[in-house]
């Protein structure tokens, strides 16, 4: 068999992710990287000390497959306090290698060949390949990147006898939209009626603005009983590089989830788990996170006010979408590349979050950066001459 035949792609349409490509381009041009979503600042020294202590006290061998019990207990307590649902640490919580693994494993546990999965796009880039690798068929609800609300009649019209699951993400990457109670109620009604599995990506649960409240699937019993809730500590504690997350689901669903998790990664880095379990006892960090990021959003948005970009303030996440429709007719990939090379500011073209070719003329900027970086980026965008 030839090497080509041997590497006959299961994902023929997938290349290197846009996050990697734009980060590389930013480096090449020494541009300010507001593209890939990660904080420019470090986690707290206290959390680092906790990892060091875990390592020096010998917590360096395999963790239990489902995660260390103190971390599962700490998550269970936090979720009970925040969303009033008790997930049993023994049978309903699994520590994962970031939310990415949680999502992949949840999709793999749910989707069989020929199953349809409802995906709202723009969508985070890992959902669709995970569905396709499992032989599933993504069925898209296409939203404008500046969308105001979901048309639930459209969602209803896309559900067939083959629909197995629905993937949701609030606060949302890349739009920064936040679903309110009414959307969650609609989702609960549909999921119950059609017996759908819900895969809920809630990695930005603590980054939500202007007094909004995160409505977790955990807080709605009709959803919690059919949902794989995927979370991450990466966004919450400024530790995206630690790749630690979790999945919560009812015991029978978790049992299936763990069958896959145990062969995908078996278990997750032990010293990080001990450190996070300890740090979770101090809610001051994550309860202050929304205000911290809202200040950054406001600083950035005020600074780009005169640039000609059109935008609605992000409602949550650490992303701000802007439309350049008054500034250029070019497609977003070309504009993002040009701004990286010529204005020295990298962003993500929002078309990368769609399955089809779209032309909304919207870029995503990540404002999880130091204030002076955001101001410098805004200044460079301000000075950039279009044409
Ligand atoms: N979901 C969304 C919406 C994200 O933005 C990200 C990463 N930024 C992830 C999942 C993956 O999280 P992790 O880094 O914990 O794998
Ligand atoms: N989630 C991050 C973003 O949206 C990137 C993660 C990655 O690089 N895969 O920018």
From TrEMBL:
Keywords: Aminotransferase, Pyridoxal phosphate, Transferase. This is Aminotransferase class I/II-fold pyridoxal phosphate-dependent enzyme. Residues 31-380 form the Aminotransferase class I/classII large domain. It comes from Dyadobacter sediminis. Belongs to the class-I pyridoxal-phosphate-dependent aminotransferase family. CDD domains: AAT_like (cd00609). Its cofactor is pyridoxal 5'-phosphate. It comes from the Bacteria. GO terms for cellular component: cytoplasm. One of its GO terms (molecular function) is kynurenine-oxoglutarate transaminase activity. Gene3D superfamilies: Aspartate Aminotransferase, domain 1, Type I PLP-dependent aspartate aminotransferase-like (Major domain). SUPFAM superfamilies: PLP-dependent transferases.
């Amino acid at each position: 068999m030839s090497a080509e035949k041997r590497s006959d792609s299961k994902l023929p349409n997938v290349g290197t992710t846009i996050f990697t490509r734009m980060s590389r381009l930013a480096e090449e041009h020494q541009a300010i990287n507001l593209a890939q979503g990660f904080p420019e600042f470090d986690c707290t020294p206290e959390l680092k000390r906790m990892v060091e202590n875990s390592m020096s006290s010998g917590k360096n061998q395999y963790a239990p497959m489902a995660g260390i019990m103190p971390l599962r207990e700490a998550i269970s307590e936090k979720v009970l306090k925040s969303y009033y649902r008790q997930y049993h640490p023994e049978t309903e919580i699994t520590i994962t290698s970031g939310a990415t693994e949680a999502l992949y494993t949840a999709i793999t546990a749910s989707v069989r060949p020929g199953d349809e999965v409802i995906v709202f796009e723009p969508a985070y880039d890992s959902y669709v390949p995970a569905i396709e690798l499992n032989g599933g068929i993504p069925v898209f609800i296409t939203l404008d990147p500046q969308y105001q609300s979901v048309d639930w009649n459209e969602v209803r019209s896309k559900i067939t006898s083959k629909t197995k699951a629905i993937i949701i993400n609030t606060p949302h990457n890349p739009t920064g939209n936040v679903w309110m109670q009414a959307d969650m109620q609609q989702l609960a009604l549909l999921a119950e009626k059609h017996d759908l599995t819900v895969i809920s990506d809630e990695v930005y649960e603590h980054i939500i603005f202007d007094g909004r409240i995160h409505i977790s699937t955990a807080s709605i019993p009709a959803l919690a009983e059919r949902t794989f809730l995927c979370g991450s500590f990466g966004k919450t504690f400024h530790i995206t590089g630690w790749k630690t997350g979790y999945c919560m689901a009812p015991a029978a669903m978790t049992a299936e989830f763990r069958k896959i998790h145990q062969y995908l990664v078996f278990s997750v880095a032990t010293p990080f788990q001990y450190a996070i379990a300890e740090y979770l006892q101090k809610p001051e960090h994550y309860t202050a996170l929304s205000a911290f990021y809202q200040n950054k959003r406001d600083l950035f948005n005020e600074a780009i006010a005169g640039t000609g970009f059109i935008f609605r303030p992000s409602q949550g996440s650490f992303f701000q979408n802007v439309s350049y429709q008054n500034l250029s007719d070019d497609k977003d990939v070309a504009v993002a590349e040009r701004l990286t090379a010529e204005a020295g500011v990298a962003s993500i073209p929002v078309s990368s979050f769609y399955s089809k070719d779209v032309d909304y003329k919207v870029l995503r900027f990540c404002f999880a950066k130091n204030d002076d970086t955001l101001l410098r980026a805004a200044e460079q965008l301000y000075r950039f001459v279009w044409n």
